[in-house]
Amino acid sequence: MNMLLEGKAVAVTGAGRGLGEAFATHLAQAGASVVVNDVEAELAERTAVNIRAHGGRAIANGYSVTDPDQAQAIVDQCVAEFGKIDGLVSNAGLNYEALPWQEEPEQVRELIEVNVLGVIYTGMAAARAMVGGGAGGSIVNISSGASLGQRKLGVYAASKGAVASLTYSWALDLEEAGIRVNAVCPLAHTRMVWKSERSLRNCPPDRTPSRIAPLVLYLLGDGSRDITGQMIRCNGPQLHIVGQPHLKAPILERDVWDTESVQRAFDEVFSAHLEPYGLEKRVPARLRKWTEGTSPQPLRSA
């Protein structure tokens, strides 16, 4: 592998197995010095030992991203050991399936703490160190296509939607400091898909985490110096940009909107412009009505 990350220091969270292990291993093979973080410290150590056995530089770290002090310590260890931090891969995450009435508050809290607060805490620490170092850097947040909406994954989808919004905002905040912030939406055969028949159908065993790693490597390298604020999806064979939310035309205006005029706006205009929702792209009932042969009446002037 080309030494695309020679001389760079990178921290990878959730790197004890699965996607994080693949990211850490590929980055080390490309010349990076890697902090291998995982709350299961023995798994982090296993990954670090494997990297070192193949000639790479890596240290293990068992801190939790859900604690702001420990998240700071992940970055501090990278700077102390390797002299700097050039990149962060916020990969640590949880996932489970549940319908809304089945959700358990404690399980919800745990997922949000890892998937959202963990990304925020480690990103804050990395950004602080990168800005202080004055040499820029790259933050890669791991989001998910589930952020577009997916059955039985409401809380997980919400957490990954938060990661997407954070990515867009931080890209704006950090661009003048030369720090790129992008998000990757991976689909790979890991333990996260084992308990879901739907996920197993959509993600066969050949979709290994190693097929996602080149994208993360690219986003951490100098070749992506002009790429920031993007959400990129890779499921193995497919690679594409995920469209960002936008204000959709037509945009109607009145001096004052009341309930009756809002009703008319939906009946006469917006019913023909409703968005499909969720990854399954279900067509809303109102839109199905129009596509089945009924044409909307034009909006009359207010």
Q: Could you tell me the CATH topology label of the largest domain.
A: Rossmann fold
| SSE-based structural type | alpha/beta
CATH class descriptor name of the largest domain: Alpha Beta
What oligomeric assembly is this protein in? single chain
Helix content: 40-55%
How would you portray this structure in words?
- It is a single chain.
- Helices cover 41% and strands 13% of the residues.
- With 302 residues, the protein is an alpha/beta fold.
- It folds into 2 domains: 233 residues, Rossmann fold (3-Layer(aba) Sandwich), CATH 3.40.50.720; 56 residues, no CATH class.
- It has an 8-stranded mixed sheet with strand order 3-2-1-4-5-6-7-8, with helices on both faces.
- α3 packs parallel to α4.
- 39% of the residues are buried.
Which features characterize this protein?
302 residues; alpha/beta; Rossmann fold; 2 domains; 8 strands; 41% helix; 13% strand; globular; disordered C terminus
Layout of helices and strands:
Blueprint: E1 9-12, H1 18-29, E2 33-37, H2 41-53, E3 57-61, H3 68-82, E4 87-90, H4 105-133, E5 137-142, H5 154-174, E6 179-186, H6 191-194, H7 197-202, H8 213-220, E7 231-234, E8 239-241, H9 259-268, H10 285-291
Parallel strand pairs: 1-2, 1-4, 2-3, 4-5, 5-6, 6-7
Antiparallel strand pairs: 7-8
Helix pairs in contact: 1-2, 1-8, 3-4, 4-5
Summary, kept brief:
The protein has helices spanning 18-29, 41-53, 68-82, 105-133, 154-174, 191-194, 197-202, 213-220, 259-268, 285-291, and strands at 9-12, 33-37, 57-61, 87-90, 137-142, 179-186, 231-234, 239-241.
